[in-house]
Amino acid sequence: MALLATLLPLAACGQASSPAPSPSPVIVSQAKGTPSSSANGAAAAKPAASAPAGAAPRYGGGDPNGYPIRIAYASPAVASWPFYAALSQGFFAQQHLAISMIQMAGSVAITGLSKGDIDFTNAPSNAIEGASRGLPFKMVLSSWDRTPWTISGKAELKSIQDLKGKRVGTNQVGSSPYLYLQAALKRAGMSMADIKVVSSPGTQDTFTLLLAGQLDAAVVSPPFDAIAEDKGFHQVAFIGDALQQPYIGLGTSATFIAQHRPQVVATIKALMDANRWLKANPDGAANLIVKNLATSPAVAKRVTTRMLPLLSVTGELPLASVQEAIAIQQNLTHATITTKAQDMVDWTPLHEALGKS
To answer: Of 59, 130, 286, 324, whose Cβ has the fewest other Cβ atoms within 10 Å?
Structure first.
């Protein structure tokens, strides 16, 4: 495979060839120290741990005296909309949770989750990848029913076939955008060997490389696709229908579920409340995009119209989607994966959060 692996360190923004620093999401209220109480009656609070090696600085909020929850995310994007809403509208605070969001690449998140350095990853695909390696990970929430991945690129690129020999940016091997790009190329009769892949830790890093002229095209999600249009790029192809992979939600470990089930339920409840609020308040939803992602109101409005229908009402994903993810991991690793789809998910905390029996 002709793979140009330009792996960008998560915090290496000072080099001349590196992208500019990412705009930071709004800090609603910073979580403080070691809390004196925990959510939903848990017996003991844990101390706030330092971020794992390779992780970018935190942002967060919620109840400063609540139970500390550490959640990994790959890149600021509309994909994390439910988290922005749960912070800004007080849903995490209502559940007595002190949230720290820690930016890290997917591979770092898998390691952090396995060591207990973080409590959740907001990319369920990380949990499925870890579970396929035999780690005791579970997907517990899917915040989105579908994915919005798009290939944005230079005006002369009219189709996926035009990407042959071009520099195409995406996230790391095995990540959701990488897999969608791979599937879209296969659908078009091509493979990753037909393009020059430039990998980065997160979608925002990839987008910055596109703007800097280091890429011909990039796999992006909102709001980056809309911003790219304003910068003279265009949609080469929509690829969000190439797979049915999990998008953004929550993945955690079986150990954390067993030892901290009230906090798992509380975190899920806050995010499901956030989804309902977003769907009922499109103007407020657009405003969150402006505040957290530094977009113009016009871009935020376009993104809101495009994205709100994709938010999940149930929080669940069909097992067929998880099975598809397992098959892809087998192809990537050339290993036999014996763990079944039903063993990689646990919807019972979600059902509890929603008041289901």
So the answer is: 324
The residues, any chain, with a CB within 8 Å of residue 133's CB and separated by 6 or more, are none
CA distance 29 to 301: 26
CA 9 – CA 155 distance, rounded (Å): 30
Alpha-carbon distance of 297 to 21, in angstroms, equals 22
Is residue 45 a contact partner of residue 63, using CB atoms and an 8 Å limit?
Answer: no
- Predicted pLDDT of residue 211: 96
Q: 58 pairs with which residues across the strands?
A: 102
- Dump pLDDT digits (tens) for 18-42: 333 333 333 332 333 333 333 443 3
What average pLDDT does range 279-290 have in this prediction? 97
Given a contact cutoff of 8 angstroms between Cβ atoms, the answer to whether 165 and 283 are in contact is no
Q: What angle do CA 120, 322, 78 make, to 5 degrees?
A: 55
Cross-strand bridge partners of residue 142: 249
Question: What is the number of other CB atoms lying within 10 angstroms of the CB of residue 316?
Answer: 18
Beta strands in the chain (DSSP E): 58-62, 67-73, 97-103, 120-121, 137-142, 150-153, 167-171, 196-200, 217-220, 234-238, 249-253
Measured CA angle at 96 (ends 112, 38), to 5 deg: 70
Tokens 């901290």 found at: 260
Taking the C-alpha atoms of residue 144 and residue 208, their distance in angstroms, rounded to an integer, is 25
Per-residue exposure over 103-123, b if at least 16 CB sit within 10 Å of its own CB, e if not: bbbbbbbbbbbbeebbbbbbb
- Report the amino acid identity of residue 175: S
Query: Contact 278/85 with Cβ under 8 angstroms?
Result: yes
